[in-house]
Design brief:
Length: about 180
């Protein structure tokens, strides 16, 4: 991308009044690239293993936590309990998880990974946010703080600060759990 700014982020032509107002153009292009990258990752995931990214996250949570309640999965993957329940229904239909009653308290129902579910997890490609986390962790602390601050500001400017979001990069259709 050709930028209209020099390395110090100042407009190349300090006297051109339009130059400053075009910062938003580069911001919107960058946001669109991020959205596009997450969209393409979602499509690659579905094509690769037939699972959505939220389904993979739920399977991984069950694998990590063992026999686990919907509430605990929900907390782990930062999705609502209703969303996790819908995901579990679809995963159960595909024989990737099963629901079992707790031996000590029959009122509690846990999700458990099946052998098919374990096999499926072994074939899942890395998630986009895993690569991002690796690269982000390599940054200096001041760079991390600067990025977090800028992204929080963008979220606020887009009236998105109160939207519940999982710490993963996915924009799969909401009805495809």
């Amino acid at each position: 991308m050709v930028s209209r700014y020099n390395s110090a982020s100042a407009p190349l032509d300090m006297f051109e009044p339009m130059a400053e107002s075009l910062y938003w153009h580069d911001v919107l292009i960058s946001l669109r690239r991020i959205i596009r990258a997450t969209d393409l990752q979602s499509k690659r995931m579905v094509k690769s293993c037939g699972l959505t990214i939220p389904q993979v996250m739920v399977l991984r949570a069950i694998d990590l936590l063992g026999d686990v309640t919907v509430k605990r999965i929900s907390d782990d993957v930062s999705l609502s309990q209703a969303t996790v329940t819908t995901i579990l229904n679809r995963l159960e239909d595909r024989k990737l998880v099963e629901r079992v009653r707790c031996q000590s308290d029959k009122r509690i129902v846990n999700a458990r990974l099946t052998d098919c579910g374990r096999e499926m997890l072994m074939s899942v490609p890395p998630l986009l946010h895993e690569k991002f986390i690796e690269r982000f962790d390599a940054l200096e602390d001041w760079e991390k703080t600067q990025i977090i601050s800028a992204l929080q500001r963008v979220a606020t400017m887009m009236d998105a600060e109160s939207i519940d979001a999982a710490p993963l990069l996915d924009i799969a259709p909401t009805r495809v759990y």
